[in-house]
Amino acid sequence: MKRALVPALVLAVAGCREAPEDRQTPSTLDAHGTGAQRVATEMWVQFGAAAFGFAIVVAFLAVAVFRSRRKRPADPLADTGGVSWVVLGGIVLPIVVLTGLFVFSARNLSALTKPPKASAVEVQITGHRWWWEVRYPEQRVVTANQVVVPVGQDVLFRITSDDVIHSFWAPQLQRKMDAIPGTVTSTWWHVTKPGLYRGVCSEFCGLEHGRMQFMVQALPEGEFRAWLAGATLPARKPTTPSEKRGEEVFTTSTCAVCHTIRGTPAGGDFAPDLTHIASRPAIAGAQLPTNRGNLGGWIMDPQHVKPGALMPPGKLTGPELQSLLDYLESLR
Ligand code: CUA
């Protein structure tokens, strides 16, 4: 037993350390959104109250042990003032503390649930096995596993699912919200600091639940508007012969059956829209940084990265793949 335990522990510790530098571990306690700040405050207050209660109980226990050692009363059943301690510490104090916590939590819950009166932008989220579709309906922008929001503004999310129940959660920004097929739920964000945040699916949804993530790019207002304006444009036209060949490979192969690249004949709506894929921070449910090597590996052998993913392996020759990569890398 011991022999098995040691290597298991070593592996567990090594596993924690293996995470690449760029792979942030999102913590609700490292909050950068007003919603998540409320959740973090709630956590600390609850923890503080529990720790305070625990400290009192331990202190009384210690006093009782030492006093009973020092002197033993002649009649152990005689009341020497113990009843008032029980009434005060066992009934009055818990009622006061728990009522206070209840009111505090109910106010937080209400504040977290109430959507803003007016939002700077509305985003529609659709959960798919195992990726997130992200739409800005007013601007007709579509992206995948990439949520771009302005800092310091209220952003309204309308969330649903295409297949099973998922849960949309950026732990540093706001509480989680279920994505339910046939129903639209809503939540809102108010991000306080520009940066790149990681979001996850927080409801078990099948084989690749753990690899159904998204990246949040929180940008200052001006940069956000510029991004939005760029994202409304159709795909950039290929310029070099290799890029042209790559576009041809894309539109004439199975890629176009599932994926859309706006401005080309590829109009599949089963998988992520790839119109501006090269400008996204990550691919494959935010599992791989967007770069040539990862794109190539993902296209040729998606099952290696995400076993069970609905994307079939690419059947391309070497030159076809290189041209396709030239083209995809140009789609900024
Ligand atoms: Cu989607 Cu878990």
Helix-strand layout with pairing:
Elements: H1 2-17, H2 34-70, H3 82-113, E1 121-128, E2 131-136, E3 141-144, E4 146-150, E5 154-161, E6 166-169, E7 177-179, E8 185-190, E9 195-201, E10 214-219, H4 221-232, H5 241-252, H6 255-258, E11 282-283, E12 288-289, H7 292-300, H8 302-305, H9 318-330
Parallel strand pairs: 1-5, 4-10
Antiparallel strand pairs: 1-2, 2-3, 5-8, 6-7, 6-9, 9-10, 11-12
The chain binds dinuclear copper ion.
Tags for this model:
single chain; 332 residues; alpha+beta; Immunoglobulin-like; 5-stranded mixed beta sheet; 42% helix; elongated; binds dinuclear copper ion
Helical/strand content category: alpha+beta
Number of helices: 9
Q: What's the end-to-end separation, in Å? A: 54 Å
**Overall spatial form:** elongated
Give a verbal description of the structure:
Among the domains are: about 25-115; about 240-330, Immunoglobulin-like, CATH 2.60.40. The protein is about 40% helix and about 20% strand. It contains nine helices and twelve strands. It has helices spanning about 1-15, 35-70, 80-115, 220-230, 240-250, 255-260, 290-300, 300-305, 320-330, and strands at about 120-130, 130-135, 140-145, 145-150, 155-160, 165-170, 175-180, 185-190, 195-200, 215-220, 280-285, 290. The strands form three sheets. It has a five-stranded mixed β-sheet with strand order 3-2-1-5-8. The longest helix has about 35 residues, at about 35-70. It is elongated and about 100 Å long. Mean pLDDT is about 85; it is low at about 5-20. The chain binds dinuclear copper ion (CUA). Dinuclear copper ion binds near residues 127, 130, 166, 205 and 209.
